[in-house]
TrEMBL record, chains A, B:
InterPro entries: ATPase_BadF, ATPase_NBD, Euk-type_GlcNAc_Kinase. Residues 79-331 form the ATPase BadF/BadG/BcrA/BcrD type domain. It comes from Streptomyces buecherae. It comes from the Bacteria. The lineage of its organism: Bacteria, Bacillati, Actinomycetota, Actinomycetes, Kitasatosporales. This is ATPase. Residues 1-24 are annotated as: Disordered. Gene3D superfamilies: 3.30.420.40. Pfam families: BcrAD_BadFG.
Amino acid sequence: MSAPDPQPDPAAGHAPEPGPRAPAVHYALGVDSGGSGVRIALGPVGPRGAPAAEPLTWHSPTPALVGKRGIDAAGLLGQVLPAAQRLLRQVGAERVAAVCVGAAGMASLGDDLRAHLPTALADALGPRRLALAADGVTAYVGALGQRPGAVVAAGTGMIALGTGPGTGPGDKRHGGWRRVDGWGHLLGDCGGGAWVGRAGLEAAMRAHDGRAGGSQPLLSRLEATFGPPEHLPGLLYPRSDRPAVLASFAPEVGRCAATDPVAAAILREAADHIARAAQAAFPHPPTTGQAAHGDDVGALALTGGLFRMGAPLVGPVRRELARRLPGVPVTEAAGDPLAGALRVASALAADALRLPVDGELLQVL
Amino acid sequence: MSAPDPQPDPAAGHAPEPGPRAPAVHYALGVDSGGSGVRIALGPVGPRGAPAAEPLTWHSPTPALVGKRGIDAAGLLGQVLPAAQRLLRQVGAERVAAVCVGAAGMASLGDDLRAHLPTALADALGPRRLALAADGVTAYVGALGQRPGAVVAAGTGMIALGTGPGTGPGDKRHGGWRRVDGWGHLLGDCGGGAWVGRAGLEAAMRAHDGRAGGSQPLLSRLEATFGPPEHLPGLLYPRSDRPAVLASFAPEVGRCAATDPVAAAILREAADHIARAAQAAFPHPPTTGQAAHGDDVGALALTGGLFRMGAPLVGPVRRELARRLPGVPVTEAAGDPLAGALRVASALAADALRLPVDGELLQVL
C-alpha cells in the first residue's frame, strides 16, 4: 500500500539519532507460530506504520511445543531470538521497535507466553512495544490490514473474525473483535474442510448401504482414497488427527461437484454456513440502502487452504455472500498471517494501531 | 409367542432319555456381551425352538475386555461359565443343548471368541450347537424373532439390520442380512443420539455467535448442562467418550422440540435418516400395490435408548416410515438382545434356525 520509505515515522515520536547520518530506520518484527512451524519477518517501519519494504524472513518447520502450561515460551524463544538477531545483523540494526507474536491458541494457551515473552524479548531485542495476537487476528490483518470488515479462514476448521467502527474496544458486538465459530469439528467449524469431507464420506457410505441420498461418485472416490468402505472406520477412529483425515476428502467433494448433485449440494450447504459466519462477524451489516449510498462498509476476505478448491466452493460462497452481505466487496487476502503479524508490529512501532485491543485476541504489553 | 411347554421338541431329533421319567427338558443358553456388561439367560426349549418358559438370568456389570486380539475370550468365559453352571444346577440340568453368544463388535473383534469358545463351552456346558452373533443380530431376533423385516437400533449410534425372503444366505441384498449404517459418529450413525446431540449443540453455538439458524432455547440448555459455551470445546475434545457426551444432549433437543422450530427440524432430519436406513435394510421393500393386497411384508421394529425420547422423535420417524415403507407395520421390540440370543440358541437346539448364517453377523460352529 505504500512505497518503500526509510524515513522514521514522525508519528512514532522518536527523536532522530544525533549526528550527520540519515534518520534512523526503525524495524518491526512479526512472529507467526502455528502447527506447521514458526516463521518470523523483520521489516522497516514506514509512514503510519505500514511496512516500508519487503521484509527479511526466516522459517523453522518445528512447531512450538504445547504443554501443560500452554504454548511453551522457552522453546519458542529458543527459535525466535537467535533468528531475529541474525536478521537484525543482516540489516545492520541492533534492536527492533516493536514485536507482534501471533500464535494459534494464543487466547487459551498463551499464559506462558504472556508470563515470559516481555522480559525475554526486551533483553534480547529491545522493543518498546509488544503485541500478542491470536492467529485469527494476524490472519485478519494479513488479509485486510487495519480496514474494517471480516475475514473467513477456512482450512481443516472454519472461523470468521470481524471488526469495525463501533462503540469501542471490549464491546464484542460493535467495537471489538467479533469471533464466530471455530468451535472444532464436533461443535461447529461449519463449512470448513473437516465438515465438507465428513459430509462427503457420509454421502459415500449412504451409497454403499443403498440408503437414499447417497453418492456413487463419492463412493468411488472413497474407495480410491481409503480402500474398502467397511474398513474406513478402523482406519479413521484410532487416529488422533481425525479432523485432518476428514478434511483430506474435501478436495474429492470439490472434484465431484461439477457432475454429482450430491457433492454440489454439500458445497452449497458449506457455502451457506460460511456466509452465515461472515455475516455474523461483519461489523454493522449494511442494509441494501446503505450500500446503495456508497458508504464505506469494509471488506470481506476469504483465506485458508479450503478455498484453493476454487470455483466449486468459491462460486457458491460468493453467491451466498452477495445475498447475506449485499454491497460488501469480497477480496482475496492481501497477505498471510506472518504479514499480518509484521503489520501489527509496524503499526505498534508507529503508534498507529487502530485495531481493538481486547486482552484476549489482541493484547499489547 | 407360545405357551410354556416342557416337552422336548421332536424336530430336534433327540431320543427321549430311557426310563420311566417324563421326557427330558432341553435348555438353551443366551449370552449378551456389550459395553455395559455381560448378561446370560438359560431357558427351556419349546416347540419349533421358541423359548418355553421365562428364563433364569444373570448379569455382571463388568464388560468383556477388548484387547489386541479383540474381545477377550478367557475373560468372557471366566464370567459366563461359572454363572451358567449355577443356573444349570438351579434347574437340575447338567448340560445345555445350544448356546448363542451375542457380542458388540463380533464381526470385527470376534477372532479370539471364534478360536476359544467352541472347545471351552463344549467342555463346561456340553452344547451340541454354538452360534456367534453380532449384537445387531441379537437385537433383531429379540425385537422380531425370526420374522422377516428390519430393526433400527438407535442409541448413541444408529444401525439398521434387515433380513427376509430372498435368494439365500450370503446374498446380502436379498437373502442374507442387510446391515445399514452403524459407521460411527464421524462417518454415519445418522439420526442416532450423537448425531442429534451434535446437531443441537451446533445450533446452540450458532445462537451464541449470532449466526443465522441458531437456537436460543438450545443455547440455554447448553449453558444449563455444560456451562459457558466458550468452555465447551475444552470440556469435550480431551475426552475419549466424545460420542457419548454428544448423545447426552439429545434429550435436550427432544425437550425443546415442542416449542423450538430449530430443535424440531433437527428431529425431523434425524427421522428422515432413520427412515432411509430402515428402507435400505428392509427386505424387498413393498410397493403400495403389494401392501394393498395384504402380502406378509414383514415388520419393522424400533429399539434402543434414543426412542425413549418419545413423541418428538418417534412421531416424525413413524411419518417418514409411512412414506418410505408404506404398508409395513412398525412395532415395539418384543424383547431385548439377551432375549434374542436365547431365542437363537433355542432355535438352534430345535434345528429351527431359519435366519441367514453368513459367517460374519451370524455364525454357527
